[in-house]
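In response to the reviewer comment on reproducibility (Comment 2.3), we provide here a single inverse folding case reported in full, input and output, so that an independent group could reproduce the run without further information from us. The structure tokens appear first.
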């Protein structure tokens, strides 16, 4: 029954306005005053105000991954993966605090700035080819959780009741691919789910500084994350707090439009609300479609008003915690804003310094100002301060060239960007950029930053770069008698950018003309990238943003329009190389006492949101640059400034020094200069494995890190650089390691700075379980600390870790977290491969019990090992089943099955959807549906074969067509050779469309 609204206000201060009352009391009071329509309206990202109650409009979603994004100038900190490389939770907490304070300060002058921040990203960096690698902290769940906890604590603030901002973790769950990201399903077995993917979220949520989560676009085990039962079964069990679940942009519509998981949008939105989604980010600022779908779901009886109330209650609790309903004068000092302060600038520099990782060093570094009279600074990123899709606009910037010139003097720095200087010629003449005098107004500000979701409140004044249009006020490129030299950068895979002498990039606006008008590549669809395709008369120039070919039309360059839907061929261009970039680099290197080559990626190109990488290789043009520099001057250091790892074995072997840093924000150049010259001893550590080649990686869609042997946890090969690796200008000695087991593990170790200078060491504590009965990680990070030590200083460090966190795993045999008895090794060291001290700890207890098969049966998804299978949704609401991958033969292994005195019969619960059968939703709301059938009565080709390890066949069960993928039947079969005792059980599945849910045994 719908509550009647309170339309009269007998008191000027209703309870929901009283900050002295508990949040729950205030929320219930306000909820009761809202009409059903007003409550429904609050479910959209852009919730309107309620004037009669004095409620302002509210927007969920403010990007703030490494600074306030999309809303204009703000302090820009290093990318999240760079913050991950600091391995410093306290630093990351201070960065979160600064970002939260800037959000408050910016909101005070612009109400479009939101306080519900969609940050941080805690997806694990399982595969370095993921386009959004820059957004995560690490490949390890412990480190990711520690840094996410720190960042959210900073964003939230320390006030016991009022939140500075309300952080939302993204993207729930098992999301590491951009390719077909809204239709691919991550197959996640229970062990990977509990030990890896959930673990990254769990710590931050339990710490109490998280306001909610955002589901990811993908599916997990065949079910979209926006209707995931894990929101209820796991997430909401970790805290008593009212967490808010905000959908990703457009994802609610995807449930019908691209995923075809539901037939109607009313069914989809009802299912999402029941699963726990509270705020719907869909159709930008147009809430009408979402609200109509909610009303339709109510009218059809798919949900009732209480479902709406549950979601609105959570949203109101968040708004209340942000202080929105308090008197304006009642805001605690904790929530006061601060913007672009000296402290924030110093923090941006400190974070950028701590993020630099020294990969190799044969004594070239640190450089000496007295010995290096002339320094060559070369490469495509040597004079860049790149931003990414989730950056704010720069208030100030520092490129390596600028910082080194400021330090040494401009006359001591030789620069070459290493780009090829080229000219383009057509049959009608040379391609030319109109003279600068004809370019009209000055350069437009670069549109940097990007994001998930929808833009700020008023579209006309949107600061979201996804809404920015290309400039049309400048004249397009023309053809004529005199050429214009263009700078060509090849970012790999044939993806090119072309830059005019003015510094502007060639780009294409909505009118299709090619202009030198962009300050940087950017935008949701990048309009500044091209590729050359071979043609008998030279090359065709394809514009990647539109997919069309460039042609000459009325003397100007324009993307050819489609004619009746057919693609039109562009103009043939001949490419003349005026100078190779490597030649300019070699000249610069030969003039210098030392060389710094700065290479890497543009965060908007070749690996970004919507686009995965296909290779770990450094672009060929950049490889030629470091080779040319090194050939001309052996004192060459390569700095990789990138959002992700590269496979650079040749460079690592050939060069005397190799460094990596993520794009370091506004202070990146200054930080790098201070590290190169030894003001700061580098102490960044790799937050993910750097593999030697593409061949070391499994398929990007293989989320089973145990079976695929992925990440440092399971990788069996030799990485180029291991997880946790990073060198220093000083040295550290480790003393004896001791471990005590009481309620928790207490680890104690001694570390001494035994080198020539002060510096930070990152002490890393790992656990391993030699001889374990199940495949466990080679070693697992369980604790760490970044500690600064003066030269000669010694420190004794103590770590306390819960035993289950350090030594436990998910026991699929019994569906619980467990610690096996036995001996475990605890290691301390400088990386996952540089372990300096080891101690042993023993866990006492009874031996692990086998699977109680007659009592519990076997859930198909709880296998110990498998091949040729994929996990799928057992029903639309909850549960997993197993199917054959690509209609292949699937095999499952269940170890240590205890059949007791013996079992004589078996039941197989399965569904079989034959080719051509519709997607029958029968049983979608239940774990099973269907009746028991006799195995002898079926004669189709879907079978479940059960046998023992010695090859003894127990039964072959034929599964008849059941009428749909969710229509389960139970087939009983006798076991002529009854198994007894503890045996390993093997199951073979045959038949596309077969889904196995469970097996039962009796005797």
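Designed residues, in position order:
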């Amino acid at each position: 029954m719908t509550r009647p609204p309170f339309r009269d206000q007998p008191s000027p201060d209703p309870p929901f306005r009283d900050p002295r009352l508990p949040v729950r009391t205030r929320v219930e009071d306000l909820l009761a005053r809202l009409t059903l329509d007003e409550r429904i309206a609050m479910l959209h990202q852009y919730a309107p105000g309620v004037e009669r109650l004095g409620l302002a409009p509210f927007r969920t979603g403010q990007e703030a991954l490494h600074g306030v994004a999309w809303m204009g100038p703000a302090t820009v900190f290093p990318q999240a993966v760079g913050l991950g490389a600091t391995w410093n939770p306290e630093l990351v907490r201070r960065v979160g605090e600064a970002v939260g304070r800037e959000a408050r300060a910016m909101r005070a002058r612009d109400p479009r700035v939101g306080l519900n921040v969609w940050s941080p990203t805690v997806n694990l960096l399982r595969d370095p080819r993921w386009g959004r690698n820059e957004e995560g902290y690490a490949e390890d769940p412990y480190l990711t959780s520690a840094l996410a906890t720190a960042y959210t604590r900073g964003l939230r603030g320390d006030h016991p009741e009022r939140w500075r901002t309300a952080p939302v973790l993204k993207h729930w769950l098992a999301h590491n691919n951009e390719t077909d990201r809204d239709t691919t399903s991550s197959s996640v077995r229970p062990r990977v789910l509990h030990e890896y993917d959930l673990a990254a979220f769990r710590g931050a949520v339990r710490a109490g500084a998280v306001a909610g989560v955002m589901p990811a676009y993908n599916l997990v085990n065949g079910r979209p994350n926006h209707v995931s039962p894990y929101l209820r079964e796991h997430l909401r069990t970790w805290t008593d707090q009212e967490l808010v679940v905000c959908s990703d942009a457009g994802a609610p519509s995807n449930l019908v439009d691209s995923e075809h998981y539901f037939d109607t949008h009313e069914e989809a939105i009802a299912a999402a609300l029941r699963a726990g989604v509270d705020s719907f980010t869909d159709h930008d600022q147009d809430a009408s479609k979402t609200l109509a779908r909610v009303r339709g779901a109510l009218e059809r009886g798919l949900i009732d008003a209480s479902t709406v109330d549950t979601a609105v209650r959570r949203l109101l609790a968040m708004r209340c915690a942000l202080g929105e309903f308090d008197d304006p004068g009642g805001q605690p000092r904790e929530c006061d804003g601060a913007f672009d302060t000296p402290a924030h600038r110093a923090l941006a520099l400190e974070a950028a310094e701590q993020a630099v990782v020294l990969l190799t060093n044969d004594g070239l570094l640190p450089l000496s100002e007295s010995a290096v009279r002339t320094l060559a600074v070369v490469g495509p990123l040597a004079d860049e301060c790149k931003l990414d899709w989730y950056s704010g606009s720069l208030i100030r910037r520092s490129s390596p060239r600028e910082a080194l010139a400021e330090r040494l003097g401009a006359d001591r720095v030789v620069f070459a960007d290493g780009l090829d200087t080229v000219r383009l010629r057509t049959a009608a003449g040379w391609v030319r950029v109109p003279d600068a005098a004809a370019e009209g107004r000055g350069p437009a500000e670069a549109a940097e930053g990007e994001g998930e979701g929808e833009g700020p409140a008023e579209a006309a004044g949107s600061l979201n770069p996804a809404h920015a249009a290309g400039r049309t006020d400048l004249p397009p490129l023309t053809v004529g008698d005199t050429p214009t030299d263009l700078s060509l950068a090849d970012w790999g895979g044939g993806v090119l950018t072309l830059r005019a002498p003015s510094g502007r990039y060639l780009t294409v606006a909505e009118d299709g003309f090619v202009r030198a008008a962009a300050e940087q590549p950017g935008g949701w669809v990048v309009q500044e990238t091209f590729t050359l395709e071979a043609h008998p008369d030279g090359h065709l120039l394809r514009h990647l943003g539109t997919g069309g070919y460039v042609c000459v039309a009325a003397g100007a360059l324009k993307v050819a329009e489609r004619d009746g839907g057919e693609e039109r061929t562009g103009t043939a261009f001949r490419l003349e190389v005026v100078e190779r970039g490597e030649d300019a680099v070699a000249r610069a290197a030969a003039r210098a006492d030392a060389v710094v080559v700065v290479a890497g990626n543009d965060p908007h190109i070749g690996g970004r949101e919507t686009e995965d990488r296909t290779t770990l290789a450094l672009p060929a043009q950049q490889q030629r640059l470091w080779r040319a520099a090194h050939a001309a001057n052996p004192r060459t250091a390569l700095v990789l400034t990138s959002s992700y790892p590269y496979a650079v074995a040749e460079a690592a072997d050939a060069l005397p020094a190799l460094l990596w840093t993520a794009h370091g924000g506004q202070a990146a150049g200054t930080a790098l200069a201070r590290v190169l010259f030894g003001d700061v001893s580098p102490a960044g550590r790799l937050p993910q494995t750097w593999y030697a080649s593409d061949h070391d990686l499994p398929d990007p869609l293989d989320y089973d890190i145990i079976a695929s042997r992925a990440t440092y946890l399971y990788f069996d090969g030799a990485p180029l650089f291991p997880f946790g690796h990073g060198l220093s200008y000083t040295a550290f000695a480790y003393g004896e390691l001791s471990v005590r087991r009481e309620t928790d593990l207490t680890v104690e170790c001694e570390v001494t700075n035994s080198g020539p200078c002060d510096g930070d060491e990152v002490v890393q504590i790992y656990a391993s379980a030699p001889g374990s009965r199940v495949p466990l990680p080679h070693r697992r990070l369980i604790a760490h600390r970044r500690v600064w030590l003066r030269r000669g200083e010694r420190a004794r460090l103590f770590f306390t870790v819960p035993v289950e966190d350090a030594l436990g795993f998910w026991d699929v045999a019994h569906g619980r977290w467990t610690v096996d008895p036995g001996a475990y090794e605890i290691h301390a060291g400088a990386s996952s491969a540089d372990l300096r001290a080891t101690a042993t700890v023993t866990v006492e207890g009874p031996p692990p019990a086998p699977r109680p098969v007659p009592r519990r049966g076997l859930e198909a998804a709880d296998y110990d090992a498998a091949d040729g299978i994929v996990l799928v949704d057992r029903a639309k609401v909850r549960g997993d089943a197993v199917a054959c991958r690509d209609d292949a033969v699937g095999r499952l292994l269940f170890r240590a099955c205890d059949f007791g005195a013996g079992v004589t019969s078996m039941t197989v619960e399965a569904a079989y959807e034959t080719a051509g059968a519709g997607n029958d939703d029968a049983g979608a709301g239940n774990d099973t549906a269907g009746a028991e059938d006799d195995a002898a009565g079926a004669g189709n080709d879907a079978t479940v074969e059960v046998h023992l390890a010695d090859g003894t066949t127990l039964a072959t069960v034929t599964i008849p067509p059941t009428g749909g993928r969710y229509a389960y039947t139970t087939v009983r079969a006798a076991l002529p050779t009854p198994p007894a005792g503890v045996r390993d059980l093997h199951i073979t599945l045959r038949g596309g469309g077969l889904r196995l849910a469970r097996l039962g045994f009796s005797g």
